TrEMBL record:
Protein name as annotated: TNF-receptor-associated factor 4, isoform E
Transmembrane segment boundaries: none
Organism: Drosophila melanogaster
Domain TRAF-type stretches: 116-168, 170-221, 224-281
Classification via SUPFAM superfamilies: TRAF domain-like
Limits of the MATH domain: 321-469
Bias (Low complexity): 19-33
Keyword Membrane: no
Compartments, as annotated in UniProt: Cytoplasm
Length: 477
């Protein structure tokens, strides 16, 4: 009766691998061989798992130990000890071209990459002109045509043939190349003719003025020549003088030109002579008496004009406000003169009560008059003949106030004031005539000398007296 079939179970986590290598233990190998043969004869199912990395390393270590005990052992290869991936599997891997960042879109198996690079337009190859450059195939045409130092090419201006390096040296020095003028005149000139252009034709070249010796650019020299003060000109009066510098021509005409027509020196007096300068001297000698008569008449006319001007100025300075503020300076000197001379009267500038009103004038006796003589200052007012008296109402009837001011008063303006209203029967205020006027009307004892010096009426040797006319006839105090 046959023996029951045996089942070989692999160790947990490992796969059983049969080894054809020789073992130092013959009994173990024999037993293992019998077991494999027995398994072959039987129809027992054997489950074999795929070996893991750890299992392979363990098996290799076991085989290494076993082979090292053999007396007739051999050296194992690197592939036997460290088996790698299958080369056929690697060569079938999908790869991209090494120039895919430059734009090559090829991708295929690794075994085809070398063949692709032999034709890839982005792969660099040696320049066929042997200039030493490695150029991508896609740029080789431009390189051979424009940048290869060993290429043969012609200068576009002089048509001479050069190598690429020679053309670069030739560029910038070709005499047939048109370039802009170095003096910035705006023209393009062949480089070989630049020196001749700058010396003869350039509008910006420097040229010296033949008259004043100053330098100007050629395009501005004609403008200067039309204004140069040293340029010689002929006298416009065609006198005998030679060419005259433009800057001296005006002085020549004014002072020297004998052909210039000039007026007589007594033109302002009325002489109407006008002729060449060379005849002026003879005219003056032959007309001395006539010129003297003209000057006398001129002097008379000028005197009349002066009087008219004085009258106009006087009218402009007349006061038409009806109030006179009379400033009397040099008081001490005038007082001393009044004490030494009897009846010395000071008169004020005339003033009007309005634009077309009465004309009045104030007067003052510093040493007094009548009852106030030697003790008081006397003040008076009188009516003068005016331009509009025929239109005014007579007798004069406005109230009049005299005020002598204290100077520098701390609270308000202090002083002494006296007023009166004219009586219609007083002759002083009737319509005045052109005959010498009488004294006028006022106050012989206006202010005493003692009071004048006891209060600040005099300051800076000056006194201020105000005369105010009031048409309302109200007496002011």
């Amino acid at each position: 009766m046959p023996a029951p079939p045996a089942t070989v179970k692999p160790a947990t986590g490992h796969t059983t691998k049969l080894n054809n290598g020789k073992s130092s233990n013959s009994n173990s190998n024999h037993t293992l061989s019998n077991s494999i043969a027995h398994l072959s004869d039987s129809r027992t199912n054997l489950t074999v798992n795929t070996p893991t990395t750890c299992q392979r390393l363990s098996e290799m270590f076991r085989r290494s130990i076993a082979s090292s005990t053999q007396s007739s052992s051999r050296e194992n290869t690197y592939e036997e000890i460290y088996p790698g991936p299958d080369p056929k599997h690697i060569m079938g891997s999908l790869v991209f071209c090494i120039h895919h960042k430059q734009g090559c879109k090829w991708s295929d198996e690794l075994r085809k990459l070398k063949g692709h690079l032999n034709a890839c337009k982005h792969d660099a190859t040696q320049c066929p002109n042997k200039c030493g450059a490695q150029i991508p195939r896609i740029m080789m045409t431009d390189h051979l045509q424009y940048t290869c130092t060993m290429r043969r090419t012609r200068c576009e201006f002089c048509q001479s043939e050069f190598s690429g390096a020679g053309l670069e040296e030739h560029n910038g020095s070709c005499g047939q190349e048109p370039v802009y003028c170095e003096a910035k005149c705006g023209q393009r000139i062949l480089r070989g003719r630049m020196t001749l252009h700058k010396s003869k034709d350039c509008a910006k070249r420097l040229r010296r003025c033949a008259h004043c010796q100053r330098e100007f650019s050629a395009d501005t020299l004609p403008l200067h020549a039309a204004q140069c003060p040293r340029a010689p000109l002929a006298c416009p009066q065609r006198c005998d003088a030679g060419p005259i510098p433009r800057g001296e021509l005006e002085a020549h005409l004014r002072d020297e030109c004998q052909s210039l027509a000039v007026s007589c020196s007594f033109k302002e007096a009325g002489c109407r002579f006008k002729g060449p300068r060379q005849m002026l001297e003879a005219h003056l000698e032959s007309n001395a008496a006539a010129h003297l008569s003209l000057m006398v008449a001129l002097s008379s006319r000028q005197g009349q004009q002066i009087q008219m001007l004085k009258s106009a100025v006087s009218k402009l300075s007349i006061n038409y406000t009806g109030t006179l503020l009379w400033k009397i300076t040099d008081w001490s000197a005038k007082m001393a003169e009044a004490r030494g001379k009897d009846g010395l009267e000071l008169v004020s500038p005339p003033f009007y009560t309005s634009q077309y009103g009465y004309k009045l004038q104030a007067s003052m006796f510093l040493n007094g008059n009548g009852p106030g003589e030697n003790t008081h200052v006397s003040v008076y007012i009188k009516v003068l003949p005016g331009e509009y008296d025929a239109l005014l109402k007579w007798p004069f009837s406005h109230s009049i106030t005299f005020t002598l001011f204290e100077q520098g008063a701390q609270s308000g303006q202090g002083g002494v004031a006296e007023s009166f209203v004219p009586d219609p029967t007083w002759e002083n205020f009737q319509r005045p005539s052109n005959e010498p006027d009488q004294l006028g009307f006022g106050f012989p004892r206006f202010i005493s000398h003692e009071l004048l010096h006891s209060r600040p009426f005099i300051k800076g040797d000056t006194v201020f007296l105000r005369v105010k006319v009031d048409p309302s006839k109200i007496v002011a105090v």
